[in-house]
Here is the input.
Amino acid sequence: MITTDLLIIGAGPTGLFAVFEAGLLKMKCHLIDALPQPGGQLTELYPKKPIFDIPGFPSVNAGELIDNLMEQIKQFQPGFTLGETAQTLNKLEDGTFEVVTNKGTVHRAKAVAIAGGLGTFEPRKPTIENIADYEEKGVEYFIKEPEHFRNKRVVIAGGGDSALDWSIFLADVASEVTLVHRRNEFRGALDSVEKVQALKDQGKIKLVTPAEVTGIKGEGKVTAITLEKEGETFDVETDYFIPLFGLTPKLGDIANWGLEIEKNAIVVNNALDYQTNIPGLYAIGDINTYPGKLKLILCGFHEATLMCQSVYNMLNPGKKYVLKYTTVSGVDGFDGSRKEAEKAVVKKID
Ligand SMILES: Cc1cc2nc3c(=O)[nH]c(=O)nc-3n(C[C@H](O)[C@H](O)[C@H](O)COP(=O)(O)OP(=O)(O)OC[C@H]3O[C@@H](n4cnc5c(N)ncnc54)[C@H](O)[C@@H]3O)c2cc1C
Here is the structure.
């Protein structure tokens, strides 16, 4: 049995940063994730894509951000149960929680934070009869390693940010990029739509709209797709077909834990501490909902910080918490090696 102060379900960016904030308050953490590696959507869906809205980083690759978070929390020695899904959650009589995974691993904790993001990843698949026969044989629903497509022909389908962003990125990697969308208008960011248009004008992206992929051809591997455009049907030769129609959020077992759920997300008290309707059970990051919720990494970081303060207060009743800047207090890891706190330069203004 694994015991800890704060059990975090989900090792995406929100769950990882929560370990740091909890560590500053001397609370031990353990994380459970269904995936075999930490990083959540960033590692699973877009590890090589640059992110531009992390404060202080004009640009950082998603994979690099996760590496940095792992480095930042190393000193607090979090435990990991990876490749296992949190299946049942029970509040015990003494107020602690017991969480058991699909593989039977038992975890006990004084508090639990659900940082489960979109839940388990289920890509929305196009309704093409034989598509299952070509999965991982030329049909890909996620792009994990763009280099995989170097000098290959790819057909991307979709009208959202993922389809636009990957078309732009692969225009410099693949030998041929065709973007297919069933409408003439795209749902993605205007900036990305303009970039795709510019790449089309330069002959780097073939844009086929309004059109739909209706068939896949090839002996044991994709060699062509069939397109239907304004009543006409024709084949396009390709090495890969990448439908990027988004993910179906699936809360899975979490939905059976007695939580208040709204539109596939857990309702939390955002005026205070991101606690759910079950005291001691929190939900942070993409998995929660409240008025004005934004599914952004930096919002998850903020929520993790306030959640940890609340857990600290719950576990230390009557003990007054005094906010300390890390520039002044330094960061005390759990290995006993106190880092020399960097002397804060305090400029006195008379
Ligand atoms: C293509 C793309 C580009 C994006 N670009 C940006 C951007 O530029 N800037 C930005 O701020 N945001 C961006 N986002 C959104 C950002 O990725 C999310 O806001 C962020 O990943 C949320 O982090 P999280 O830790 O809350 O959840 P996630 O990253 O989804 O991690 C949740 C983890 O919980 C695990 N999990 C779920 N249920 C269970 C369970 N029952 N048991 C065990 N484990 C479980 C999952 O396996 C997963 O690893 C982008 C998203 C996508 C798809």
Summary: The chain is about 20% helix and 25% strand.
